[in-house]
């Protein structure tokens, strides 16, 4: 109970200091407020952006591997001349992997023709992405339909002229009408719409099914060369849920080397890309941004800490006779020390809470007025409070220690 009473009195002393010396205390708290604001604002922005980008990365699948010509991440000494002569993933690679992979839930061959114009009667949509995939596409990607369905096995194997539209393409062509069963024109071919993907909205990495048109791979073979490099061929492999990604990757690498007939010691002529590569790069990039914000905010907090220490020394000087009376009545040194330490922490908490309040106002402004969703996470609130308590503890300790060492007789005389 004594500790709680001590904390209550400390907050009362801090409030009295703020009320009696408004300008002096406000200027001293300004450094704490600005510092906490910068640190938490940067952390909030970084965490929001990281989570949004990570959710985009997660769409690729945590247990999915992509066999491609180029790696997603390049090192500083990137040997581009080695990669440029690599062969693209081919239908032959896909068919061989499909037969050999035991740990894969699905193996899919995909190509894409970008910036195409899709037409329906007098309506047209430009800039659409025409994707062609083998029948296993629904096993390697998580598909959610707004209307209609996916290709049947017969439609995929026979190359039936059917397609699944993205939500934006469907809206642009049919303007709210039901598109199922209607024919659109794609690269000179008439294709029947059998499904519409659920509207996703564009994410931080620009990935979305909204502007895509998906057709069976065997249909695409009659429209363009599916092995051509200009159509970005890739083989997507999703491992079984009960098997770790490392095991799937190890099997896939061995099978690809066997298919490409690479000798032991010979370098791979393919890249196995996975989402963890992007996640690790994001951690590094945002870690640097966080450190930069921490350094900038740290200087402000440091200046604010000196201001708090100065206030506490003045407070000790003004209340020296009170300290003497307390000690003469039996107050222990630790009681005096804790009293002033808690007072310093209370002052810093006021500045920290003000900084957190400014960050919250900033998130509301961005979310409501600029339509950019920014979230003030609970962990960042705890971080702001933790910084405030830490600075208060450091800034208030030496003045509090000096107060606790005062001689009661000399203190009363002052």
Task: Describe, in plain words, how this protein is organized in 3D.
The chain is built from 14 helices and ten strands. A hairpin with a 2-residue loop joins strand 2 (104-120) and strand 3. The chain is an alpha+beta fold and 414 residues long. It has two domains: 2-56 and 280-413, no CATH class; 87-269, no CATH class. Helix content is 56%, strand content 17%. It has a six-stranded mixed beta barrel with strand order 2-3-8-5-7-6. The model has no long low-confidence stretch (mean pLDDT 85). It is a multi-pass membrane protein. Belongs to the ABC-4 integral membrane protein family. Pfam families: FtsX (PF02687), MacB_PCD (PF12704).
Keywords:
414 residues; alpha+beta; 2 domains; 10 strands
Sketch the topology as an H/E string, one letter per element. HHEHHEEHEHEHEEEHEHEHHHHH
Shape: elongated
Q: State the helix count.
A: 14
Number of strands: 10
Helix percent reads 55-70%
Major sheet, described briefly? 6 strands, mixed, barrel
State the separation between the terminal residues, measured CA to CA: 31 Å
**Major sheet: arrangement of strands:** 2-3-8-5-7-6
Report Rg.
Answer: 32 Å
- The tally of structural domains comes to 2
Keywords: Cell membrane, Membrane, Transmembrane, Transmembrane helix
Pfam families: FtsX, MacB_PCD
GO molecular function: transmembrane transporter activity
Domain ABC3 transporter permease C-terminal: 295-408
């Amino acid at each position: 109970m004594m500790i709680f009473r001590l904390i209550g009195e400390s907050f009362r002393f801090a409030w009295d200091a703020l009320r009696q010396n408004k300008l002096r205390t406000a200027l001293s708290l300004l450094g704490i407020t600005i510092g906490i604001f910068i640190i938490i604002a940067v952390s909030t922005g970084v965490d929001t952006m990281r989570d949004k980008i990570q959710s985009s990365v997660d769409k690729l699948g945590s247990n999915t591997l992509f066999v491609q010509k180029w790696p997603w991440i390049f090192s500083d000494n990137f040997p581009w001349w080695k990669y440029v002569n690599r062969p693209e993933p081919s239908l032959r690679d896909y068919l061989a992997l499909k037969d050999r992979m035991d740990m894969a839930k699905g193996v899919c061959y995909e190509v894409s023709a970008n910036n195409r114009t899709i037409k329906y009667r007098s309506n047209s949509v430009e800039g659409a992405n025409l994707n062609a995939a083998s029948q296993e596409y629904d096993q390697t990607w998580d598909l959610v339909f707004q209307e209609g369905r996916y290709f049947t096995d017969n439609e995929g194997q026979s190359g039936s002229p059917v397609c699944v539209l993205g939500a934006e393409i469907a809206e642009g062509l049919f303007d709210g009408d039901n598109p199922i069963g209607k024919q659109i024109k794609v690269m000179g071919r008439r294709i029947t719409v059998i499904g519409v993907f659920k509207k996703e909205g564009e994410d931080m990495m620009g990935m979305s099914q909204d502007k895509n048109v998906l057709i069976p791979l065997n249909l695409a073979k009659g429209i363009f060369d599916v092995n051509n490099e200009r159509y970005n061929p890739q083989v997507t492999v999703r491992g079984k849920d009960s098997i770790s990604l490392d095991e799937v990757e190890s099997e896939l690498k061995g099978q690809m080397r066997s298919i490409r007939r690479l000798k032991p010691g010979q370098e791979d002529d393919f890249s196995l890309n996975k989402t963890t590569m992007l996640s690790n790069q994001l951690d590094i990039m945002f870690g640097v941004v966080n450190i930069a914000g921490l350094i900038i905010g740290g200087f402000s907090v440091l200046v604010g800490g000196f201001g708090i220490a100065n206030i506490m020394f003045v407070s000790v000087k003004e209340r020296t006779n009170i300290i003497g009376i307390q000690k003469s009545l039996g107050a222990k040194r630790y009681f005096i020390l804790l009293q002033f330490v808690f007072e310093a922490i209370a002052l810093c908490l006021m500045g920290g809470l003000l900084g957190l309040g400014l960050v919250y106002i900033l998130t509301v402004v961005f979310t409501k007025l600029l339509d950019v969703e920014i979230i003030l996470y609970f962990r960042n609130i705890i971080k702001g409070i933790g910084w405030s308590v830490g600075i208060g503890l450091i800034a208030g300790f030496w003045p509090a220690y000096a107060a606790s060492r005062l001689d009661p007789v000399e203190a009363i005389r002052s």
